[in-house]
């Protein structure tokens, strides 16, 4: 009955009036295709929806491929349409292919094939992990894109190194230095959680120690340093509970004394239960890791801009490592000093020389109206690289900013003027009976045509840099600010749309901490590459907001 109040909770599909979607069920679930053939599922559907006929795997395959092609066509049309003016940041998986080999040329061929298939002609940057094959691939891509009409500056700054990957390398060096205290605590947790009887005794020890925690101890995953951080953050509250447990279980110290490798000559023994110094080290190390944990979460986001904060993030890392290696935080403790120096050396390898860094990270900071070329921007660079090198960076980044603006002026200056002119003509048609509006619009069009001179180019730049910076607040919406000010800064807004969209991490936050490879389960490994790509891409498209939303 269409008059039923129940229809207020459903939305009828426009192209299929026989189908309706629940307004509250936003979850999209996925399962193996063989699940639909199991007796339990068929019995469930026979009771839940008797008229539903379970399709065969062949039918499901055809439906999945058809859905993939439909969604792909819609997304491809969006990319090809150069007039899109949306200021919403989008993340889409558009390919998941089997590369023929691991050489740079093999990766380059796959990338070029992808760009041609999707009709993507303009590429700002390609963010990759640190690998020699990626370096080779990007060298090929620079030449290829330049030959296809890419400007010199665009191809010169094509290579963007993944921040999360570099942070991972820095943290892993710190974990190697702190491995003995961490391993002793890890072994103690494994011992307690090995049997239910031991865990019951430990729970009683927690009560006796009056530990204020609702949860219990958890073991980490060795290849995911974030889980090590979470483990240490949780377990430090249970120090007294472990001391109580040692009194209740005589096997605790005996068994842990045998756990771990035999110590090498002149090396520390990592066997045995955690000592008091271990807990001190772990608490300090946990506070240290907190900064990298927050940083990795921040740079791995896909729903907000990250390029503008790149420079600030590495400046914070440099400051933190400097304090640890200079005894500011850790006093005279040689372990922390050694850890700080080792991590600092890894940092210097990738971010110590600004000439080897992508210049877009400096330009992205300038395009943030909270930063621009302010005293904060200058202090941040000088504190990180020193006054002499810092002044050189400030000069070069400003020159690159002006040069890139000139290139965008040549590329988009006329089109920006045309957009304003078309808006004026549309306004004139809408108000054709108003002589004043008509005269104003014609005057506006003439002024737009005269705005291509070098002096006007400088005027837009100078106007932006001369205005006061916005307040440094977390609530500030960077893309919304540029959306509202695009009419005042037409060329700069074009730069902003390209540069602020640069992802500085190659992985989503949930996998950014992993040092192991991203693994496909047995189910997906049995699929053909084409089917796997259709599943991975379509799942991403369906779970994210529609491109036109």
UniProtKB/TrEMBL annotation:
Keywords attached to this entry: DNA-binding
Superkingdom per UniProt: Eukaryota
Residue span of region Disordered: 253-273
Ranges where the HAT C-terminal dimerisation domain occurs: 460-542
Any one GO molecular function term: DNA binding
SMART domains per the UniProt record, alphabetical: ZnF_BED
One Pfam family cited in the UniProt record for this chain: hAT-like_RNase-H
Species in which this protein is naturally found: Aegilops tauschii subsp. strangulata
Protein name stated in the entry: HAT C-terminal dimerisation domain-containing protein
Occurrences of domain hAT-like transposase RNase-H fold (ranges): 300-408
Comp. bias regions, Basic and acidic residues: 253-269
InterPro entries recorded: hAT-like_transposase_RNase-H, HATC_C_dom, RNaseH-like_sf, ZnF_BED_domain_contain
